[in-house]
Design a protein that fits this description.
α2 (19-33) runs antiparallel to α3 (43-60). By secondary structure, the protein is of the alpha+beta class. The relative contact order is 0.10. It folds into 3 domains: 1-112, Orthogonal Bundle (Helix Hairpins), CATH 1.10.287; 116-157 and 217-261, HSP40/DNAj peptide-binding domain (Sandwich); 266-368, Urease metallochaperone UreE, N-terminal domain (HSP40/DNAj peptide-binding domain), CATH 2.60.260. The chain is elongated and about 105 Å long. The longest helix is centred in the C-terminal third of the chain and has 30 residues, at 345-374. The chain has 12 helices and 15 strands.
């Protein structure tokens, strides 16, 4: 298995480098390793190096791709973009002037392909953030959302042409989709501006989509959210992303789950955490209290005598259902000792009596405690 080198290391720049510094580093290396500037016996080696530095620049010069790489490394790029996707939005023209260097990567990365592969490219994936309640995540639910995206034109079926109309070879690029330029040491290929790289032009464009083969519209999409989903989990809805080019396969829609905060419970994995207020007599003498659960019911929980404030009890399988295996998490209950806001005369009388009876023990404990902490060494 080949391990890719770090993109920053390839260009010889730091992770905090500016866009201008990245561009400058790439330009210097590209001039050094371009296959047209080396001896014939070194073209293969130089081509591999040129491929490496160009891929690094294509990622680090794009804000979104750079953020993905900084956060997830190569997995964040390889898992989301094909080789063609990496270079499609890269601005190579700003490095070497007004010539688009994108065409030269066909030989290196297999981006050229056949005409059919260019025409019927897959649509872009979309993301949608869906806020749901903790109760919805626990029970599962069905949701309906509206998204605004491109869909294949229903009139021309993605061809971009009116009925009985046809496509013909682009006269500017002779059907190649690219035109060649020479500049100094370099021979470049640039996307044909007449046909947009398709190699064909439409005699009579579709009246609805104006020859694009797709249109923007709002779609209502229903789907199920499974029980146990957590924040950050994505639900893939196949074919509901952007439409492909000229009738190509549509991309997918990824619904990203975002959990709303809950007034009683906090979640960590499959476990839930809450706290209950318990009176002093109950924690001192022991007793039984009712504890809320996420489904709205209450369960009885025993409090042992002499329970201290902050102690945490576990309610087995009262947490969230597991998304990946059978069973549920637990609910953890933290005890908070409740201090009354107001006391009746009888309550005050009893507490004073308790304080009087306990005062000797409290004083002795306090004296021993602090005496031990602050005793000076002799």
């Amino acid at each position: 298995m080949t391990i890719k080198k770090d993109y920053y290391e390839i260009l010889g720049v730091g992770r905090d480098s500016s866009s201008a510094e990245i561009k400058k580093a790439y330009r210097s290396l590209a001039l050094q390793y371009h296959p047209d500037r080396v001896a014939p016996e070194k073209k293969k080696e130089s081509g591999e190096k040129f491929k490496e530095i160009s891929e690094a620049y294509a990622v680090l010069s794009d804000t979104n791709k750079r953020n993905q790489y900084n956060q997830f490394g190569h997995a964040g790029i390889d898992g989301r973009y094909s080789s063609e996707d990496i270079f499609r939005s890269a601005d190579f023209s700003s490095v070497f002037g007004d010539v688009d260097l994108g065409g030269i990567f066909g030989d290196f990365f297999g981006m050229g392909g056949t005409k059919k592969q260019r025409r019927y490219s897959r649509g872009v994936d979309l993301e949608y953030v869906l806020p749901i309640t903790l109760e919805e995540a626990e029970q599962g639910c069905e949701k309906k959302i509206n998204i605004y995206h491109t869909v294949t034109c229903s009139v021309c079926k993605g061809s971009g042409a009116e009925a009985n109309s046809r496509r013909k070879k682009c006269p500017q690029c002779a059907g190649k989709g690219q035109v060649g330029y020479n500049r100094g040491f370099f021979s470049f290929l640039q996307t044909c501006d007449r046909c947009g790289g398709k190699g064909e032009i439409i005699e009579n464009p579709c009246h609805r989509c104006k020859g694009r083969g797709k249109i923007k519209e709002s779609s209502s999409i229903s789907f199920k959210v499974p029980p146990g989903v957590d924040k950050g989990i994505s639900i893939r809805i196949k074919g509901k992303g952007e439409a492909g080019e000229l009738g190509g396969v549509s991309g997918d829609l990824y619904v990203i789950i975002d959990l709303k905060s809950h007034p009683l419970f906090a979640r960590e994995g499959d476990d839930l955490y809450t706290q209950v207020f318990v009176s002093f007599p109950v924690v001192a003498l022991g007793g039984e209290i009712e504890v809320p659960t996420l489904d709205g019911s209450k369960v009885k929980m025993k409090i042992p005598p002499a329970t201290i404030g902050g102690k945490v009890f576990r309610l087995r399988e009262k947490g969230m259902p597991s998304l990946r295996h059978r069973g549920r998490g637990n609910e953890y209950v933290k005890i908070i000792i409740k201090v009354p806001d107001k006391l009746t005369s009888r309550q005050r009388e009893l507490l004073n009596e308790y304080a009087r009876i306990s005062s000797d023990n409290i004083s002795e404990s306090k004296e021993n405690l602090f005496g031990k902490w602050f005793k000076k060494d002799k």
